[in-house]
Write a structure and sequence with these properties.
Chain A contains no helices and eleven strands. By secondary structure, chain A is mainly β. In chain A, strands 2, 4, 5, 6, 9, 10 and 11 form a seven-stranded mixed sheet that branches. Chain A has a four-stranded antiparallel sheet with strand order 1-3-8-7, with no helix packed on it. By secondary structure, chain B is mainly β. In chain B, the strands form three sheets. In chain B, strands 2, 5, 6, 10, 11 and 12 form a six-stranded mixed sheet that branches. The chains are: A mainly beta, B mainly beta. Chains A and B meet through strand 4, strand 5, strand 9 and strand 10 of A and strand 5, strand 6, strand 10 and strand 11 of B.
């Protein structure tokens, strides 16, 4: 089966600019996650979708980050405006549901200068 | 809240050495426990998992046992290879389709 697809692979922007990342989960996976992985740290959950509804966005900085999952399939994560500390790898993962585990995409590496 | 603590790296070993990477956790309820591996330039891959106390997860010669009494899930391998060089992450999930809580990762370097 095809894996979790993410684009772009790399992005460099200046601070205060906006950026968007895209994720296409494995077909049929109801649950989709966005994680932020800062260099030298483990991934941190930003937001979890179940189909097209938000289950958990408690760690999403909502003043600058937003995410949507149109029609319960692919998803976009947006940052506006970006800050230097947003430099990280943004990982998307999907899961078919309870007990089935998670599959991660290769991530988008964002550098804010 | 949930948290995961794993040993700091880098851990440097010679080929064929015995490996242990310590992982302890704090969680409410009965979480599932995972080890993920990230090879250079690649994404996170599930290495092994355990869903209840005393379960042993194993894959590619790696093993970890879910120890509820010590809240631990230490990763072990009897004889490491150069190809095992990677960053290893311990993680816990709150059950169901909940998001994962990760440790900071342990960078493993195997020298020939």
């Amino acid at each position: 089966e095809a894996g979790v697809a993410q684009s772009p692979r790399y992005k460099i922007i200046e601070k205060r600019q906006s950026v968007a990342f895209w994720c296409n989960p494995i077909s049929g996976h109801a649950t989709l996650y966005w994680y932020q992985q800062i260099l030298g740290q483990g991934p941190k959950l930003l937001i979890q979708f179940q189909n097209n509804g938000v289950v958990d966005d408690s760690q999403l900085p909502k003043d600058r980050f937003s995410a949507e999952r149109l029609k319960g399939v692919d998803s976009t994560l947006k940052i506006q405006p970006a800050k230097l500390e947003d430099s990280a790898v943004y990982l998307c993962a999907s899961s078919p549901g309870t007990g089935y585990g998670y599959t991660f995409g290769s991530g988008t590496r964002l550098t804010v200068v | 809240g949930n948290s995961v603590t794993q040993m700091e790296g880098p851990v440097t070993l010679s080929e064929e050495a015995f490996l242990t990477i310590n992982c302890t956790y704090t969680a409410t309820g009965y979480p599932s426990l995972f080890w993920y591996v990230q090879y250079p330039g690649e994404g996170l891959q599930l290495l092994l998992k355990a869903t209840k106390a005393d379960d042993k997860g194993s894959n590619k010669g790696f093993e970890a046992t879910y120890r509820k009494e010590t809240t631990s899930f230490h990763l072990e391998k009897g004889s490491v290879q150069v190809s095992d060089s990677a960053v290893y992450f311990c993680a816990l999930g709150g059950g169901g389709a909940d998001g994962l809580t990760f440790g900071k990762g342990t960078h493993l370097i195997i020298q020939p």
